[in-house]
Predict the structure.
Amino acid sequence: MHNFLSKISQLDSIHDVILLSPGGEPLFVRSAAASPEVEREIVRWNLIIARLARPLAAELIFKSGRYYLHDTALGYVIVGMTTTRNLGTVRTACINVREKLADAAVRKRVVLKMMADADESVKPRLIKALVSLADGEVASILTALLRKEEQFAPQHKEKLLLSICEALGHCSSHEALEALNDFLGKYGATQGLLSDAVDMTARISIQRTLFGNNCRRWLRSGK
């Protein structure tokens, strides 16, 4: 997905390429605008999408140029262009990507690749996108990331820990349960090093995993 969006951004006449998650968070941004203006643009696009009742696709014209929106299973692709020269190419590419992302296995691979390449500031949003795709593979990757938590930048650490701990609770795997218990055990004897929010999220995920595992054992037993 990152390569797809990057290639679109390199087309002639394209000035903005944005991917907004279903929750309205930016997962990819290529824009000539300064960071504060991009943040305002994200807010505006979420309002526009809501007012349009979340269309499958739309073409909009503003003073700054023409914009093409296309909904996918990972969220809205928004492409801004100064001319319509590449509109057909962009439209066709978005349709193809939408069809591919309808496959959960493909979607999972795409999100995992994006997460591996993403900055720490974006990783929590991508981890959130993995919740509905959580399985053993996701658990292995997230537990490996959790074990590197001491390397997280201080300004991103809280959000990363919260997103990882929450997502692991949906993996329903022994590996996820072990990682969460090890994580809490590491900080159990040390007060103040782990926020209440992270501690609570990890504990809730442990209980969710235990409940899920018990339900599966009960179903397998036939009782």
Remarks:
- The chain is about 55% helix and 15% strand.
- The chain has a mean pLDDT of 90.
- Residues 108-221 form one domain.
